[in-house]
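User: tokens in, sequence out, please.
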């Protein structure tokens, strides 16, 4: 019995002596040392996807070219985007002066141009995806601009892009927050009928009580 007690006390003493060393070892492995080098990788670092066949520099240049192309196309504008057209007013004025004609599609245009039967400017601009004044064809004779063409190009085209159901001007005041304006010169003024203080709106049941003959004659 005395031997067992002595052995037990010895084991407790040994464990007590080993505990500080174990705690110190755990702390040294869990907490990074100030002298340890920092990791070059961040857990929140984001890396861009680069398609196969591109280097980072090539991918950056490619994206820049695509952005410039979209900016020149002006994809947010209304109307056709595959070619540059003039206003219908300008076309009508040029047609009356004999400076423009109705354009018809050309069949086998590319093959005929390759054979030398046609010039590129002979293909309607809408079909070749160019401009009405032939500025897209190098060496071609340019079509002269009219005054209405210049007005249209300088911002007049926005008038044709009105969202109003009446064709021009602002749309309907759906929210009731737009500024109120009176009738413009030449427009008809509509005056609402003024109702009296004791006005009573018609009732459907009262209308049913009024019996009339055929076609409302009596």
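Assistant: Sequence out:
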């Amino acid at each position: 019995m005395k031997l067992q007690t002595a052995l037990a006390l010895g084991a407790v003493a040994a464990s007590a002596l080993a505990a500080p060393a174990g705690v110190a070892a755990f702390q040294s492995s869990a907490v990074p040392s100030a002298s340890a080098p920092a990791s070059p990788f961040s857990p929140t670092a984001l890396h861009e996807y680069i398609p196969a066949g591109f280097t980072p520099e090539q991918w950056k240049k490619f994206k820049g070219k695509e952005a410039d192309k979209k900016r020149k196309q002006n994809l947010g504008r209304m109307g056709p985007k595959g070619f540059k057209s003039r206003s219908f007013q300008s076309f009508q004025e040029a047609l009356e002066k004999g400076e423009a004609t109705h354009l018809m599609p050309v069949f086998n245009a590319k093959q005929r141009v390759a054979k030398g039967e046609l010039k590129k400017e002979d293909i309607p601009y809408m079909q070749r995806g160019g401009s009405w004044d032939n500025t897209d064809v190098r060496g071609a004779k340019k079509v002269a601009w009219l005054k209405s063409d210049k007005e249209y190009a300088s911002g007049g085209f926005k008038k044709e892009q009105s969202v109003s159901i009446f064709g021009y001007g602002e749309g309907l005041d759906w929210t009731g927050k737009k500024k109120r304006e009176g009738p413009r010169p030449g427009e008809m003024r509509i005056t609402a009928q003024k109702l009296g203080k004791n006005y009573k709106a018609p009732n459907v049941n009262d209308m049913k009580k009024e019996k009339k003959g055929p076609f409302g004659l009596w």
